[in-house]
Amino acid sequence: MFERSVELITGPYRSGKTMWLLEELVRHSREQPLATRPVLLTVPSHRYKGLLEKQLAQILRRSGAPGLCAVKILPFYDLCHLILRQAGVNFHLLADGLRPAVLLKAIKQVESMGKLNTFASIANFAGTHAQMLELIDELMRAALSPREVAATLSRAASSESRYQELAAIYQAYWDELEKLNVYDERKLAFKVREILPQWAKAASPPALLAVDGFDRLSPLQLSVLSSLARHCERTLITFDYVSQGPKLDEYTWKQKSINGLLAFAEGGLTLKETQFEQSVPEVKSELISTLDRQLEMEEVARQVKTCLVQGVEPSEIVVVTRSLQSYLPAVKLAFERAAIPYFPDEAIPIATLPLIKYVRRLLFLPLSKFKRVEVIRSLRSAFSNHEWLGLDKEAVDRLDRLSLDSVVVEESDWLEFIKQPGLTAESQALQRFFTLLQGEVVQKAASLSSHVAHVEDVIDALLRLPSDDEYSNPVIAWEEHQGLVELRKVLADLIREEELLLESYGSELYTYKQFFTRLEQAFENSNFRRRAGGDKFVTVCGADLVANRRFRVVIIAGLVEGDFPRRLERPGLLSRDEVRKWGSLGIDIENPRQHDSFEFSLYRSLLERAVDKVLLSYPHFESSNEELVPSFFLVGSSEQSKALPECLPPRLAALQRPVSVEELAMARLWYKGAGSVSDYLQKTLETNLPQDYAEEAERLLRRLQEPLAIVEARTSSESRGSNRKLACGDFSDLVALGLLKIDMPGAWSPSALSTYGRCPFQYWVSYVLKQEELEEPTAGLDIRLKGEVYHKALELFYAGLKERGLRLNSAEQTFLFSFFEECIAAALNWVQTERKVKLDEFWEFERKDIAFRLRRFLKEEMNSAIKDNTGFEPVFFERPFGGEIIDAALGNRSAEVILQRPETLAPGSVKELRLRGRIDRIDADGQGRLRVVDYKSGSSPIRNDDILAGRELQMPIYSFAASCDRELVSYGKVTAGLYLSISKGAGIGKVDFEDKEVDLLQVSRETIFDFVEKIAKGQFPVAPSKREVCQKCDHSAVCRIAEFGAEED
């Protein structure tokens, strides 16, 4: 026994220090069963406490001796709580979620004193608060009170430096805690240091104090433990550290902690240091590399399955990545396919839960003015309580359809919509829905408790948990219920915040928007950990969360630069540069985990946890095709770099050692085509196999029959090589056999033919299937309606000039501008009366924007007319062609346009075709020449290449139409074309039909017939003629461009 002694037991990782310590505690407890002074063991976390409790139980079972073992295991801050309670100190602990509110009060206090300068502009941002709290935590861990920080800075920093500001905020935060009579965790430790002498007199200090499991000890923890050790008969401290030898580099990041422990002797304590030696078992090691992370996890799952088959218990296998987040989808897919019981030990952010997303959407509806799409999404949610609303699925579908037809955009439209006859039940449901969500607190500022009560009302009425249904997934059910628990914890924190601040600051009111912002921030900062359902599973976790014990098999994945080792740079106020600056001012807040050797030490520590086998792996590419670099831990020297393995062929091992029928089927598809998968599964069913294996094969065959048929068709020899793009959209065989008929229009429009030229698949979806992107109703004018206004205004203007016999380059400008304003007003009035338009508070701004663009366009037109020496003047506007009725009373029709098949083309089924459309404007020069003008809302330039490729066929078709129009022929022949951008106010392309180098009309005629022939044959490949085509396509959701690829233009 060592009176007032401290025994420091050091040694390498897993050298038996913890087991020796636990056995010593058991021995001490059994030797003194009636001792009144307790035995305390302090650890870094509740997680580590649970691990030690299991190990302690194993020791007691092994010993077989009856009796009690009175050892109290407490995380460090729980130990501080115990000491304060035993000393009779009354304290209230400040929850972490309430710290930002206290910090905000502190910042306002500093600002009121005129000391906030550098951070004044960003002081109210949530990110700033998080950074400042992290800095305050580091200053507290360094055992530096605000006064000590201020005193040190007064000697080294100017009074106007930002460090002085931060020190003032730290002091104000400390003062606010005292004003509110609350403590955060670290301030409690300061209080413990202060009252330890009184505690030793009033309470019974531990007979034995043990410290275990800390990978580093902060100065604050060291000061508390040093003071506490003076009142204990004996103190045992275990710490991973070696002072010499080849492994010294792995422990240099712990130097500050070991120096602090050795300093116990300077405080008058007797310090005895004992070194443990490590017995390292011989471990088999293997290194593999794969193409990407998904294939990497498939190989890891294969290795795990092999170990399980060989008799290794699941709890004896751990799969580690530096950060699990980037691997979770791959882990889920690979391990579930292999039927491996696994536990992803990772926190779940509640903001990612569907339940929380649903609640957030509901609460945001008043702020979004009840946008139609958000209301319908909320009502369609599986969490929506239709019973309370008095709705069912069919009623929600009806509301969706009718509200879309009624052009419902937001709240005011809903109020009109629910007045419609025949919607009694739905109207009542919507009325209840809106009334609940538009509670009193939404309309005016209210206290936090009032806002929370409103949220509770919404949850109680509109939330149901689908997991409560019969046959629900128990894991998902637990996550949903836990998410609801965490949601109510967030709400409870807001209530506690109000109660905390009420006495000192009085009641504070928040608008609904301010409250919602606070709630969203709380959601983002809240998470919970999954629960392990027993110990019959393989643990998959991040490197920081691996249990501090040995495993038979350790698998470390993701060994690439940037992942492991992780980049150590911290952002903001605790970046390396900032920490060094604090150090130069005499304040050391460097976190040992930011030391250069920490990542290597962590890596070595993981390797040494293995008893039988270590598997290391790394991918070559990200899913985004970004190339990855193997970790420095693998290529630290040129010899190591040469020893890196070749990348495993994708899924080759699955053919030889499959983990499931599904994986084998996938591998056969990869290497041998779709036909081999069906054959293999069929043969599997015909052989005598275990029942569960045969059932799995039968289920898989049923599920894959149709997809396999499609894949086989796409990968057949006829679909490869130059014809590979026809694998999606080629119906020519079906058309030839008479099994499919393509409906051909009676007359072809320029836009339809140009669409086929841009992408045949786009034509198939738009004009054959007649599918349009479902556009949500919006207030104001969309692009299409704006285009109609532009066309209408210009049509009225130029037609008016023609009626008056005026020319653009000679008429009086005052009259032109005045008349143009009348035309703009008439066009805007026309769109409001003739089209379904929902006007909102921004309509006046939109009117002004349209008028501005049209005025700018007119000015450019006038300047061009003055400079233009060609003599072209507008003569016809919105000229139709294709035989449509122009005047029913007189029986007038537009000119019919019939194209004959060019003799230059090989014989085909299409001998002639009709065209229809409308020419925006036609100019004549009075000398027998015509110019067709096409107005464009966009501003992208249009070139001859676009015409030759068939992407822009309007101008050639307009020329064909003019040649068939007798009235136009009387004016002359089309010799040119002009594209005018209204939004840009300038020309964006010209066409010369008299160009001797290329006959645009002949090429266009051939192109049109070629397109129509292909359409008739059913050829609609995914083949965009230009990259930009995909960027403006509405059908990306059903297009397989990523699968089939697109060639450069």
UniProtKB/TrEMBL annotation:
One of its GO terms (molecular function) is DNA binding. Coiled coil: none annotated. It comes from the Bacteria. One of its GO terms (biological process) is DNA repair. InterPro entries: ADDB_N (IPR049035), P-loop_NTPase (IPR027417), PDDEXK-like_dom_sf (IPR011604), PDDEXK_AddAB-type (IPR038726). Residues 9-243 form the ATP-dependent helicase/deoxyribonuclease subunit B N-terminal domain. Keywords: ATP-binding, DNA damage, DNA repair, DNA-binding, Exonuclease, Helicase, Hydrolase, Nuclease, Nucleotide-binding. Residues 748-1040 form the PD-(D/E)XK endonuclease-like domain. Pfam families: ADDB_N (PF21445), PDDEXK_1 (PF12705). The keyword Transferase does not apply. This is PD-(D/E)XK nuclease family protein. It comes from Candidatus Obscuribacter phosphatis. The lineage of its organism: Bacteria, Bacillati, Candidatus Melainabacteria, Candidatus Obscuribacterales, Candidatus Obscuribacteraceae.
